[in-house]
Specification:
Strand order of the largest sheet: 4-3-5-7-6
Structural class: alpha/beta
Shape: globular
Mean pLDDT: 85
Distance between the termini: 29 Å
Number of helices: 21
Radius of gyration: 25 Å
Number of strands: 7
Low-confidence stretches: 117-135
Keywords: Membrane, Transmembrane, Transmembrane helix
Helix content: 55-70%
Number of domains: 2
Length: about 450
């Protein structure tokens, strides 16, 4: 399986089927789509794979139909047909399905907005008179249709609508205002809170293009260049300029890159495909982009997936521990474990809410990743007593009690151990759920 969040969709859908509500509150209907597929094909990895493929097909359809709407029939009929979708339809469809469904509606909304006088006439003949019935309706209500599609995007993923609103702002404002916007964007990171646990915070530790390369390799840098410096027909110049300027702003560390800015960049690169003029040169650009993304996929598969094939045996053993009331593990393992074994898992450090919901007579365990069994077993406190009262070796993972892990992490901090960077990383969750996640779980917002 590809996608670092795909099993979370399965967890949410299973909860819908079994309890009638989501495991974690969310207004997006995308989880209902997964639940519907589970009802038809059964709960399995193969059904999740089919859902990812379906999501990619949805993006391809959105791009094709939007191009059908915006390119004139008489002037450039070949542009609607001579189009090969970017490989990003699969990157987004497999990695971020929820975002992709919303992005499809946003792309259709943009297509309807630019469809003025470009819909072929469909006519009905009465008494040898031909009366157009489709062209005028679409032309008259194009803004209404575009707005409805935009609301569908909001329903599926609010972040995509904020992204779409940003495109609209840059499209409306005069180009002479762009330098002032750029200067404000330079200052913006200093205005955001510096708390990494928040939804929005300034991340000035790494330059965004370097972060993009670390997350996706040369493919995304190649696509970014043509997003910013690519050309289009004169009739789309303002929109193309708005997209290019938006992409140019993303060289600044405006948001936490891996969480928000990276997804915005991927979305921009896909949206610009609606306005691309296809010719031989564009085909060469597409081939290079596809080759670079595929090269990264084969050389660095961990950027697109977790090592799920190594999770079954440790997951099965952890699920069989009788008093295991809650498991704490890294993000990918947690979702896989929850989906496959129907056991509670938390990819954050346990907080008051998690502890209060623990079944009576059970313990909180932790799946330690990246630290060897021998190192955990040999660790002793100041009184030369073993820190861990229970350690079960399970391949790349070691199962320990959470209370022992907390003591071990304090011990590493006092010694300034080389293992501290592993113990306080994504491999071993060390932060509590941030406020925006707690708010979402309480109020669905």
């Amino acid at each position: 399986m590809f996608g670092k969040d795909i099993y979370w969709y399965g967890v949410q859908a299973i909860s819908l089927l079994e309890t009638g509500k989501l495991h974690s509150p969310d207004h997006s209907p995308v989880f209902h789509i997964v639940a519907f597929l589970f009802r038809i094909f059964g709960v399995s990895d193969e059904t999740l794979l089919f859902f990812q493929i379906l999501t990619s097909v949805w993006l391809i359809f959105s791009l094709f139909f939007s191009r059908y709407l915006i390119f004139p029939v008489k002037e450039t009929p070949n542009q609607r047909i001579n189009f090969i979708p970017s490989i990003l339809v699969f990157v987004l469809g497999f990695l971020y399905p929820k975002q992709s469904w919303a992005l499809g509606f946003l792309i259709l909304s943009i297509g309807c907005y630019f469809t003025t006088r470009r819909i072929p006439k469909l006519s009905v003949t009465f008494s040898q008179r031909s009366i157009p019935v489709f062209s005028s309706l679409v032309l008259r209500f194009r803004w209404v249709i575009s707005g409805i599609l935009f609301l569908f995007a909001l329903w599926f993923h609010p972040m995509v609508t904020l992204f779409g609103f940003g495109i609209l702002v840059f499209y409306i404002i005069p180009e002479k205002v762009y330098p002032a916007v750029f200067c404000f964007a330079v200052i913006l990171p200093f205005l955001f809170p510096q708390n990494p646990n928040g939804r929005f915070y300034g991340d000035k530790e790494i330059f965004p293009l370097f972060a993009a390369f670390a997350l996706a390799g040369f493919g995304i840098l190649w696509d970014w260049i043509f997003l910013v410096f690519g050309k289009s027909e004169s009739k789309f110049f303002r929109m193309r300029k708005a997209l290019a300027f938006f992409g140019f702003l993303l060289i600044l560390p405006i948001f936490h890159f891996a969480d928000i800015q990276y997804r915005i960049l991927l979305s921009l690169i896909l949206v610009v495909q609606v306005f691309v003029i296809w010719n031989r040169f564009q085909f060469l650009i597409w081939m290079a982009s596809t080759g670079l993304w595929i090269f990264t996929l084969f050389t660095s598969p961990s950027l697109f997936r977790y090592s799920y094939e190594y999770m079954w045996i440790p997951g099965e053993s952890m699920a069989s521990v009788p008093n295991n009331g809650l498991l704490v593990a890294h993000h990918g393992f947690c979702e896989y474990y929850h989906f496959q074994f129907r056991k509670d898992c938390l990819s954050w450090e346990p907080d008051t809410k998690a502890i209060s919901e623990l079944p009576e007579g059970t313990e909180i365990y932790r799946a330690v990743y990246g630290i060897r069994y021998e190192n955990l077993l040999a660790s002793k406190d100041e009184k030369n007593q073993p820190i861990f009262s229970f350690v079960q070796p399970l391949g790349e993972y070691q199962l320990v009690l959470e209370k022992d892990w907390q003591r071990y992490r304090l011990w590493l901090e006092k010694r300034n151990s080389k293992f501290l960077s592993i113990a306080k990383s994504w491999k071993n969750p060390y932060r509590q759920r941030p406020e925006f996640i707690k708010r979402k779980q309480s109020y669905g917002l």
